[in-house]
Amino acid sequence: MTTPSQLQPVDWSRLPRRHAISAADAAQRLVRHPGWAIEGEGAGTALAKTYHFANYFQTLAFVNALAWIAHQQDHHPSLQVDYGRCTVRWNTHDAGGLSDTDFDCAQRTDTLVSTL
Ligand SMILES: C[C@H](O)[C@H](O)[C@H]1CNC2=NC(N)=NC(=O)C2=N1
């Protein structure tokens, strides 16, 4: 039987360094990410989107699949989980705001949802 300890380790050293991007730059990038919104300000600025699901089980299945992306990318979103929806907020605390990684992970989240 395969257990999590037998999975290949993720080589996080290959991930790009994370730099904060300006509010103007973030607003420009947002147009390429339908349904996502920029919330908050300063270090608390986040890229947010709410996804809707048929029931609690499907919502949690999404959360578990997203956990794999978070693990691979070494980037961990804030999640608000309700019965049939989940709000995902990407923010880079290391950079004190938004970074390329947040937009990359937003795209990965959309791609995941499109395959569920
Ligand atoms: C040491 C570790 O790589 C860092 O703390 C990572 C982990 N996960 C992270 N997740 C998020 N959302 N932002 C970060 O800056 C971040 N940094």
TrEMBL record:
<dbReference type="GO" id="GO:0008124">
    <property type="term" value="F:4-alpha-hydroxytetrahydrobiopterin dehydratase activity"/>
</dbReference>
<protein>
    <recommendedName>
        <fullName>Putative pterin-4-alpha-carbinolamine dehydratase</fullName>
        <ecNumber>4.2.1.96</ecNumber>
    </recommendedName>
</protein>
<comment type="similarity">
    <text>Belongs to the pterin-4-alpha-carbinolamine dehydratase family.</text>
</comment>
<keyword id="KW-0456">Lyase</keyword>
<dbReference type="GO" id="GO:0006729">
    <property type="term" value="P:tetrahydrobiopterin biosynthetic process"/>
</dbReference>
<dbReference type="InterPro" id="IPR001533">
    <property type="entry name" value="Pterin_deHydtase"/>
</dbReference>
<dbReference type="InterPro" id="IPR036428">
    <property type="entry name" value="PCD_sf"/>
</dbReference>
<dbReference type="Pfam" id="PF01329">
    <property type="entry name" value="Pterin_4a"/>
</dbReference>
